[in-house]
Amino acid sequence: MQSIRKEDVQQALDRLSNQQVYVHLESNQGAYTQGAYPSANKGPFHHTGVFIRNAGIRYSHGKITGDGPFRIGLKMEFGWVYAEGLTDWEQDDQGRILFVGYDLEGRLAVALDLSQQPL
Amino acid sequence: MEKHVLLVFPHPDDEVFASGSAIQWSQQGTPVTYVCATLGEMGRNMGVPAYANRETLPQVRQQELMEACRQIGIDDLRLLGLRDKTLEFEDLDALADRLLAIIQEINPSLIITFYPGYSVHPDHNTCGEIVVRAVQKIPVEGRPPVYCRALVKNAEQVLGKPDITWDVSEVLEQKIEALKAHRTQVIGTKNGLGERLSKQDTESMNWFRFEHFWIYKEAIE
Ligand SMILES: [Zn+2]
């Protein structure tokens, strides 16, 4: 993973447009906010989290915006894929594009993975 | 002396809740089997600084788990191949049948898992529930005892004092080294385990030193 440079990301997003891609999209605050461990107990907290894995989509264009942390929107025929708070990314040796946003303590808080093959 | 102990936990590193005991069993020559349901695929810690990512984390954690098992003396690790955070949505009866097949194969004298309903993470609670369901499929006279860890803060108020507390001081160093094998999760991380490892204060050390269990009575009666 490396810090996001918008120009590089934009090129990568363009590479996967107008074709079938598989998406992992996740917003994650962790499972231990209920205070399993005393140090993790930060008082009353409404815990939320979502993920969708291997949703097959096709986007006509994708765009990265912001000055960091960054936002990505992928425009589909009937809707959008959206992620915010992204800080780091990589293209791995399988051509997958992986985005992540770390929280202030260095833990993954948001993830967006795009792949031409099911993840 | 135990004949064969079966640990059933959902995530790599959950074995820390019984790893001191497991080290001691293994030193006494008691075989220990560990059924780990997932690879902690949804973990948020990618190492400090991050060197894993959402897609490589499962392989990284599998390697860490294998190293931890080697250090604990667990030579029979079974991965169920389920996905982190999804246990509660599976067909629990089908999972209980898979576990039952393992129980019948190895015939453990003791099973250790999480206390259903009192273990905070939905995967932990479901894991305990699957164990109980599997054991309840066995005729009463043949059921192995099930010892559970409970993680909720008010466990003692609800369940009473733990039935069993094992002091694993003698193997504390080994237990901590085995935990450190889960590098992405515990080295420099801000979670409970990482902080306990870095603090090394009396409270943290006592947390590692004593392994508390409640006997799950409905499973054996
Ligand atoms: Zn766990």
From TrEMBL, chain A:
Top-level taxon of the source organism: Bacteria
InterPro entries in alphabetical order: DUF1806 (IPR014934), YojF_sf (IPR036492)
Protein name from the UniProt record: DUF1806 family protein
Pfam families found in the cross-reference section: DUF1806
SUPFAM superfamilies reported in the protein's UniProt record: Hypothetical protein YojF
TrEMBL record, chain B:
InterPro entries cross-referenced by the UniProt entry: BshB2 (IPR023841), GlcNAc_PI_deacetylase-related (IPR003737), LmbE-like_dom_sf (IPR024078)
Pfam family, one: PIG-L
Coiled-coil residue windows: none
Domain of life: Bacteria
Record's protein name: Bacillithiol biosynthesis deacetylase BshB2
